[in-house]
Amino acid sequence: MAPHEKRIVIYNHKGGVGKTTLTVNIAAAFVSLGKRVLLVDSDPQCNLTAYSIESNVVDDLLDTSDDDKKGRTVWSAVKPVCEGTGMAKGIAPYELSTNLFLLPGDIRLSEFELSLSTLWSECVQRRIRGFRGVTALSGLVSTIAQNLAIDYVFYDAGPNIGPLNKVILLDCDEFIVPAACDLFSVRALKTLGQTLAGWVKDWEIVTALAPDDVYLFKGRPRFLGYIPQRFRVYRGEPSSGYSSFLSKLERNVDSEIIAVMRKIDATLAPSRVSETMLGQIQDFGALANAAQAEGVPLWSVRSIGSKSQKEQAKQVFIDLSRQIIKRAQLA
User: Fold this and answer.
1) 204 phi and psi, to 5 degrees?
2) Half-sphere exposure for 105 (CA within 13 Å, toward CB)
3) pLDDT, tens digit, for every residue of 197-207?
4) For 19-59, where are the E strands, in sequence order?
5) pLDDT tens, 122-150?
6) pTM exceeds 0.90
7) Residues 6 or more apart in contact with residue 171 via CB below 8 angstroms
8) Considering the domain 6-330, what is its CATH architecture?
9) Residue 291 belongs to what H/E stretch?
10) Which one, 4, 71, 76, 234, has the greatest CB density within 10 A?
11) Checking DSSP bridges between strand 222-231 and strand 94-97, what pairing results, if any?
């Protein structure tokens, strides 16, 4: 059997930290480095899908997602589980470019999220339907990843701590925390580690109750690192306030994520915070906005931006991706 693909989520329950933009550009950099990547839009807001596919195609996807034959979104796949009529249905992902694939999101994933609360309760009751329900998305991803010989899966998760993100985080091998250089991002870290630790403990209880021969994900996501980003640069240097926020982020990452995860299992986080900053992403401003509008990575924008700025953006994400790959391989 081929080696298990790595599953990663760039996650922070605080909104506005650029998770989708990071995911798109990191995935594109991975492809540039010769990796085969599957993107999973698991956010009911569908930002990743809207970023990657033309709006008229997105509209058609959402209009037909309930159709048993035409549906091609994540909701189309998990609908039978949500309705209690069967297992998750296989769907074909979109090939965005060579070696880059997308499982489109759907606003109706919010219905699946509502059903997950009940499904978790059924797991505690040792009911097969509960286990099949909470692992439905994972099983779908496993099948697609194996069929397409995927190297890395990236989930795009919404900014919350609901049951849908719970199953996504527990399905991942690693998670990466993006953080804007502001006070709200610093404060958000205080609850992030405790939430993730609680989810891991919940899964330990559930797996102990699981009947034999039931598909289960590992449920032990490892903290791979954090990415400070969206800081201003003046005359080639970070703004004066950046260093103060960076030190605050480092302290909170150490105390609120690393220390908390290591209490559960020493392998779930590095021992030193100095080993966890994966890279730094400056605020690319108008270039980032244009990239979203055109549905391309920062370095492929056609409408604006100098060649040197785009080359700089690409190198930043290539370096970041190499660091992610290196640490993921060591995990």
Assistant:
1) -60, -40
2) 24
3) 999 999 999 99
4) 37-41
5) 999 999 999 999 999 999 999 999 999 99
6) yes
7) 7, 135, 137, 138, 141, 155, 217, 218, 219
8) 3-Layer(aba) Sandwich (3.40)
9) helix 286-294
10) 76
11) unpaired
